[in-house]
Structure to design on (265 residues):
C-alpha cells in the first residue's frame, strides 16, 4: 500500500518543467487580454463602466438581430390571444435551419408589396399546397378537406369568415388570418392583390413564441391542436393564376400500359 502511494506521488511531479511552461504561457495570454481591456477602458470616457455598458448593448443588439426580437402588437386583429400594446418575443431562428412555418403558428412577417409597408402578425392557416375553403356546411374553416375547429382561439362571437373564399396556397407561400376575423385585414382582403393574398415564406421574420409584457399576462404561445388532423397537401393543383386554377389528375392514357417485366439499367 505504501509503495503504491509513493509511486503516485512521484508521477505527480514527473514533469515540473513542462507544467511551469504551460502555466507561464496561460498567464501571459491572460495578462495580454486584461491589458487590452485596460487600454480600451482607459480610452473610453467613464472607463470600465462605459466598456461594460457597451459590451451589454452589443450583446443585446446581436441577440435582437439574429435570435429573439420584441414586437409590440399594434391592433386588435389577433385578439383574444394578443391585445393592443402586448409585447411578444419573436423567435428569428425558428425557420432558419430547414424548418418551415406550420398551420397554427403565429408569425410576424414583412408585408411590403403584399399587405402594406409594415410588419404584421397573423396566424398561419394554410401552407404551400393547401386547399383552404370557407366555409363548410357547419360554417367552419376547411383545409385539405378537413374541417377545423378554431373555437379555442377565435375571437368570441366571430365566425371563421364572413367572406367566402376557396384558395390553393402556392408552394413556398402562406395563407394567413387574424384571430379577430371581423377586425383583421389579412389574406382574405388581398386575394386580388399581387400574390393573391399569400405571403412568401422568405418574408417571415419569425415565430411569436412568448408574450413578454405586460408581466401579468406573460405566457408561452403554443401551436393549437386544431390543425393536427389536417392531412398533408397533395401537389395536384394549379394554384395561380386563379383563372387557371384546376386539379391535376392522372390521365387515363397510361391506364392500359402493362407492367414492365423487369428492371433495366
Amino acid at each position: 500500500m505504501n509503495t503504491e502511494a509513493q509511486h503516485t506521488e512521484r508521477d505527480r511531479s514527473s514533469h515540473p518543467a513542462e507544467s511551469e511552461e504551460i502555466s507561464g504561457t496561460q498567464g501571459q495570454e491572460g495578462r495580454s487580454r486584461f491589458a487590452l481591456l485596460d487600454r480600451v477602458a482607459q480610452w473610453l470616457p467613464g472607463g470600465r463602466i462605459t466598456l461594460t455598458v457597451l459590451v451589454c448593448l452589443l450583446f443585446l443588439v446581436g441577440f435582437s438581430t439574429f435570435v429573439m426580437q420584441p414586437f409590440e402588437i399594434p391592433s386588435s386583429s389577433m385578439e383574444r390571444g394578443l391585445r393592443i400594446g402586448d409585447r411578444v418575443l419573436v423567435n428569428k431562428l425558428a425557420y432558419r435551419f430547414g424548418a418551415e412555418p406550420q398551420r397554427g403558428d403565429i408569425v410576424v412577417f414583412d408585408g411590403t408589396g403584399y399587405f402594406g409597408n409594415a410588419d404584421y402578425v397573423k396566424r398561419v392557416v394554410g401552407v404551400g399546397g393547401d386547399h383552404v375553403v370557407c366555409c363548410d356546411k357547419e360554417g367552419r374553416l376547411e383545409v385539405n378537406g378537413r374541417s377545423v375547429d378554431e373555437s379555442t382561439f377565435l375571437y368570441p362571437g366571430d365566425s371563421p369568415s364572413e367572406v367566402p373564399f376557396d384558395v390553393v396556397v402556392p408552394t413556398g407561400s402562406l395563407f394567413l388570418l387574424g384571430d379577430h376575423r371581423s377586425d383583421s385585414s389579412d389574406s382574405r382582403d388581398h386575394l386580388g392583390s399581387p400574390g393573391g393574398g399569400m405571403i412568401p415564406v422568405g418574408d417571415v421574420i419569425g415565430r411569436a413564441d412568448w408574450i413578454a409584457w405586460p408581466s401579468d399576462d406573460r405566457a408561452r404561445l403554443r401551436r393549437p391542436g386544431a390543425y393536427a388532423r389536417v392531412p398533408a397537401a397533395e401537389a395536384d393543383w394549379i394554384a395561380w393564376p386563379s383563372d387557371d386554377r384546376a386539379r391535376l389528375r392522372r390521365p387515363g392514357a397510361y391506364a392500359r400500359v402493362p407492367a414492365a417485366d423487369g428492371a433495366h439499367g
Remarks:
- Residues 1-27, 259-265 have pLDDT under 50 and may be disordered.
- The two ends are 73 Å apart (CA to CA).
- The first strand starts at residue 68 and ends at 72.
